[in-house]
Amino acid sequence: MKKLLLVRHAKAVHDDSYSDFERPLKHSGMRDTTIMAERIESASHVPELLIASPSLRTLATANILSEHLQLPRPSEDERIYDASQQALLKVISGFSDDHYFIGLVGHNPGISHLVHYFTGQIRDVPPGAVILITFEFDEWQQLTYDSGKLAWFSSPKDNS
Q: What's the predicted TM-score (pTM) here?
């Protein structure tokens, strides 16, 4: 069985003095990420490792999660930045089968598109949201359209 934790980066600064790639997290985004880390841990949905877009806001989100969940430093994959659904599927199919539970920290609309592709569900995925999808496969390359089950969804907008 494979498990995929999809994470949309937390709230970032919208300011023309930063390029899109260099936009930092807002203070509220840092706080929200810490809250989400606590929820992930409480729900026992801690992945083995995180793979993130190298953009500043995405890597900051991944670093906060890694620190709070006591995970190794996140791996960076430039293909995740501004990626289409198809590009993200290539990233995921290339995950090592040695790992059964991986977290991917990325951007919308890609994260929302993956949720729909793997589960058939259309979900609003606000900044900082976390989605767990489970699959009845042993190899990442076997994941296909509508082959996953949305097992858990949490957002900083949620009250609990």
A: 0.96
Q: Are strands 75-76 and 101-106 parallel, antiparallel or unpaired?
A: unpaired
CA distance 58 to 40: 17
CA dist 74 and 51 (Å) reads: 5
Tokens of 66: 């890694």
CA-CA distance, 160 to 120, in Å (whole number)? Answer: 25
**Sign of dihedral through CA atoms 150, 65, 139, 99?**
negative
Read off the pLDDT of residues 37-87 as tens digits, 9 standing for 90 and up: 999 999 999 999 999 999 999 999 999 999 999 999 999 999 999 999 999
What domains can be seen in the chain, in order of their start residue?
2-154 (3.40.50.1240)
Tokens 């858990």 sit on residue: 152
Q: Could you give the CA distance from residue 57 to residue 13 in angstroms, rounded to a whole number?
A: 9
Strand partners, 91: none
* Cis peptide, bond prior to residue 156, ω within 30 of zero: no
108: exposed, middle or buried (C-beta count within 10 Å: 0-12, 13-18, 19+)? middle
The helix-helix angle for 27-42 and 56-69 (nearest 10°) equals 40
